[in-house]
């Protein structure tokens, strides 16, 4: 079992360039099946989740070529409507293929994605919206069978600004008859990137990034070339790496506007942050300030995907911080691992009380999910002694060469089998 071994105490100094956004490229790869066209996508990160989506496209009959950070998909030969169960189980976000496949073939069979480490991850909002658009959906034996006579555009009010549900409705609306309006839509930047990719292929979508998205159905989509936006969560993770080690890191290839909530909280923690138009510099403080309250919220609020990372930072802050996780049911599993390293964290439902300690000590810990794994590495960078992080396959789902990049920034870190 591979693990990361971190010897803490080094200041991280240097530059790191951020890869393309996992949560932008996954819906875009799902969208490639809609048009029976060729898509050339640049800035595609080399991640396990991207490989899973690539394997799903191949299993559907698409042609996929990968050259470095570029991925080419030809969805003309698509000849299958059943998404392989083992791949859906490996990556629950493949549920957004439902909308894309309904647009392309009018039917799809997909296994129930099931929950994951951070909560039950229901898909009721997805299914309710697709039914409103005319899909006949049956759930039986752990599978979801969707059939459609013709997707009809309609007005959908989301009970919660779900990222995945917003993406699924967009993908189902691209070729639907008439206009689809999504109200209380998620406003994440990755949805704007999906809109941009689809409009370049000939779709007619507007409003992504706001709470109201309008999709006018079109007849077909043409070939498209697209450059994926940078990953704001990977960027935020390296920002915390600088903050927790009192370092000085320049993070390149970013869109500062996507990082405003993270920038604000790291400044509250005492970081000095300079931003340029596509990069920023984070100078970590000698003394980390505690933060009275952090609440994770849908974009543009503080991202839930940065909650674990900031908890690592606050576990060595000067004072007590409160973290309220409002987005997911069960996203504090990293807290018990931080406590093994000497952190003083108490969980009350969806609220964590983090009392900063003078020092963390290295320990054997295990990643329980993607961002929780990154959090434990960040804590190891600071802890006295050696930290061993197991189950690093979680980290590899969302971070490309994480330990290599950290080593280049001066961390004493290695991967062992
Ligand atoms: C996306 O997940 C991201 N994944 C997540 O990133 C991210 O944490 C999340 O959005 C929130 O920003 C991808 O984009 C691949 P949601 P998604 O639907 O779409 C509830 C990472 O670390 N909900 O906005 O699944 C749900 O249970 C991952 O990169 C329903 O109740 O998130 C959750 O509590 C982790 N019913 C909340 O909404 C539904 O039908 C937010 O979920 C759908 C969601």
How many strands? 23
Radius of gyration, in Å, reads 21 Å
Count of helical regions: 14
Question: Quick one: CATH superfamily of the largest domain?
Answer: Enolpyruvate transferase domain
| Structural class determined from secondary elements | alpha+beta
| Mean pLDDT over all positions | 96
CATH-defined fold name of the largest domain: UDP-n-acetylglucosamine1-carboxyvinyl-transferase, Chain
Number of domains: 2
Describe the structure.
The structure is a single chain. The chain is α+β, with helices and mostly antiparallel strands. It has 2 domains: 3-18 and 243-416, Enolpyruvate transferase domain (UDP-n-acetylglucosamine1-carboxyvinyl-transferase, Chain); 22-216, Enolpyruvate transferase domain (UDP-n-acetylglucosamine1-carboxyvinyl-transferase, Chain, Alpha-beta prism), CATH 3.65.10.10. Helices cover 31% and strands 26% of the residues. It contains 14 helices and 23 strands. Strands 21-22-1-23 form a 4-stranded mixed sheet, with helices on one face. It has a 4-stranded mixed sheet with strand order 2-14-16-15, with helices on one face. A hairpin with a 2-residue loop joins strand 19 and strand 20. Helix 1 (22-31) packs parallel to helix 7 (189-200). The model has no long low-confidence stretch (mean pLDDT 96). The structure holds ligand EPZ. Residues 22-23, 26, 93, 119, 121-126, 160, 162-165, 186, 304-305, 327-328, 370-371, 398 line the site of ligand EPZ.
């Amino acid at each position: 079992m591979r693990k990361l071994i971190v010897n803490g105490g080094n200041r991280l100094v240097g530059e790191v360039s951020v890869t393309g956004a996992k949560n932008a490229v996954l819906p875009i790869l799902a969208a490639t099946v809609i048009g029976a066209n060729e898509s050339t996508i640049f800035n595609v990160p080399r991640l396990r989740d991207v490989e899973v989506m690539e394997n799903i496209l191949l299993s559907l009959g698409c042609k996929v070529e990968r050259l470095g950070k570029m991925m080419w998909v030809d969805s003309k030969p698509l000849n299958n409507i059943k998404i392989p169960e083992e791949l859906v189980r490996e990556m629950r976000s493949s549920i957004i293929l439902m909308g894309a496949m309904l647009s392309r073939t009018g039917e799809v069979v997909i296994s129930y994605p099931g929950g994951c480490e951070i909560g039950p991850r229901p898909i009721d909002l997805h299914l309710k919206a697709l039914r409103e658009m005319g899909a006949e959906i049956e759930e039986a034996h752990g599978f979801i069978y969707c059939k459609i006579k013709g997707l009809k555009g309609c007005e959908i009010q989301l009970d919660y600004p779900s990222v995945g549900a917003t993406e699924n409705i967009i993908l189902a609306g691209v070729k639907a008859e008439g206009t689809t309006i999504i109200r209380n839509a998620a406003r994440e930047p990755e949805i704007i990137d999906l809109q941009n990719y689809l409009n370049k292929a000939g779709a007619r979508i507007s409003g992504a990034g706001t709470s109201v998205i309008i999709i006018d159905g079109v007849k077909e989509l043409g070939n498209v070339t697209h450059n994926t936006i940078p990953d704001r969560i990977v960027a935020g993770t390296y920002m915390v790496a600088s903050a927790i080690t009192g370092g000085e890191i320049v993070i390149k290839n970013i869109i500062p506007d996507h990082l405003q909530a993270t920038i604000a909280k790291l400044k509250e923690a005492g970081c000095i942050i300079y931003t340029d138009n596509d990069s920023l510099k984070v100078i970590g403080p000698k003394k980390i300030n505690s933060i009275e309250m952090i609440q994770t919220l849908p974009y543009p609020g503080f991202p839930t995907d940065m909650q674990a990372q900031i908890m690592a930072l606050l576990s060595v802050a000067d004072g007590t911080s409160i973290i309220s996780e409002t987005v997911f049911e069960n996203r504090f599993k990293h807290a018990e691992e931080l406590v093994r390293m000497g952190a003083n964290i108490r969980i009350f439902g969806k609220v964590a009380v983090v009392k900063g300690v003078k020092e963390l000590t290295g320990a054997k810990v295990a990643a329980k999910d993607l961002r929780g794994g990154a959090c434990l590495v960040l804590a190891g960078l600071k802890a006295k002694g050696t930290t061993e992080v197991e189950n690093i396959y979680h980290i590899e789902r969302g971070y490309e060469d994480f330990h290599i990049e950290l080593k280049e920034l001066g961390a004493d870190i290695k991967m062992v089998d």
